[in-house]
Amino acid sequence: MKTKFTPPKKYFSNANRYTRAGKNGRDILCPECREWGKVYHFSWSALGCTHCSAIVNKEDWIIEKSVK
């Protein structure tokens, strides 16, 4: 009997103090201009977007998560 392959479910969430980037970094979405950027750590409280130059708090950045 074959097992069905189901791709992992994804959803979007805001970054928080427990968010980790992993060794390959993590893509984050700017809430102001909706452009993607990559970060390799979350040891900051606010970050300037490289596309629109807006200073955005860590909790406002949007990340993609997988359902466990």
What is the count of β-strands? 6
What's the overall geometry? Answer: elongated
Counted up, domains total 1
Percent range of helical residues: under 10%
N-to-C series of helices and strands: EEEEEE
Structural class: mainly beta
Strand numbers in spatial order across the main sheet: 1-6-2-3
Our measurement of the CA-to-CA distance between the termini, rounded to an integer number of angstroms, reads 25 Å
| SS field, number of helical segments | 0
How would a crystallographer describe the biggest sheet? 4 strands, antiparallel
Radius of gyration: 14 Å
Mean pLDDT across residues: 92
The fraction of residues in strands falls at: 35-45%
Sequence stretches where pLDDT stays below 50 over 5 or more residues? none
Q: What does this entry look like structurally?
A:
The chain has strands spanning 10-14, 26-29, 36-39, 46-48, 55-57, 62-66. It is mainly beta and 68 residues long. Strands 1-6-2-3 form a four-stranded antiparallel β-sheet, with no helix packed on it. It has a two-stranded antiparallel sheet with strand order 4-5. The two termini are 25 Å apart.
